[in-house]
Amino acid sequence: xxxxxxxxxxxxxxxxxxxxxxxxxxxxxxxxxxxxxxxxxxxxxxxxxxxxxxxxxxxxxxxxxxxxxxxxxxxxxxxxxxxxxxxxxxxxxxxxxxxxxxxxxxxxxxxxxxxxxxxxxxxxxxxxxxxxxxxxxxxxxxxxxxxxxxxxxxxxxxxxxxxxxxxxxxxxxxxxxxxxxxxxxxxxxxxxxxxxxxxxxxxxxxxxxxxxxxxxxxxxxxxxxxxxxxxxxxxxxxxxxxxxxxxxxxxxxxxxxxxxxxxxxxxxxxxxxxxxxxxxxxxxxxxxxxxxxxxxxxxxxxxxxxxxxxx
Length: 311
What we know:
Layout: E1 3-12, E2 15-25, E3 29-33, H1 40-48, E4 55-60, H2 69-73, E5 76-79, H3 91-101, H4 106-119, H5 135-147, E6 153-157, H6 165-182, E7 185-189, H7 193-199, E8 202-207, E9 210-216, H8 217-221, E10 227-232, H9 235-247, E11 251-255, E12 260-264, H10 271-280, E13 285-291, H11 295-310
Parallel strand pairs: 3-7, 3-8, 5-6, 6-7
Antiparallel strand pairs: 1-2, 1-4, 8-9, 10-12, 10-13, 11-12
Helix pairs in contact: 3-4, 3-5, 4-5
């Protein structure tokens, strides 16, 4: 297994960062999602062996990071969210130094640094000082230094942070190719759902330190959908229908620009529920179409179910 966690707890004083987490997952491309304060950063630090859990057991790539953290880090690449370069070093020296820290001999580290910078699109700029790079180029250097020792597992923390749309797409393309081209597993921690959906096959969702979902993205979205797009005669009628739908137990969001309602009916109901509410509210429905739940819908639904269960 890629990860095996049993009863993992982590306290920072009075703060309960992770709560009795049980998780077992196979190699692959995995998204790590959750609101701010969900425990994502704490989980990454535990997987790296930088932080010890207060209770429970952890195995990463079959190893215990609390006992063999240095050996394990030779098999893990880590791309942090914030810049982590040494001033006045060029990209080759930066990546070669990261390789030596992971146990590579100096000559091999430098050879691999050149190769991995070529792979990330910085071959012609590898002798420039990293501090003079653009945001996108610094992100690529961070990815390169995480790959230089050919890790079995790559931990990426907000890898598209600060990138423009083109740079973001290029970074995601590089990441998506990694499992096939370099044979490594990827755990991508991000607050951008579109990034995770573009790259990952499975997701781990945390909320307030608890594991609330783990599984495939397709399974999370589901084959059947109880979401509908609804258009009325005008914005005023759309607002009236939204209020009536919510009073009737539906979830309804109104896009004021398009005038389109996004409606989710209660379990076991279908489009007839929307028509009944519209008839009672004396609102004319001009368009109704069933649609598959988006990944964002599914993610918000998982959080809503957890909140409902907690209350």
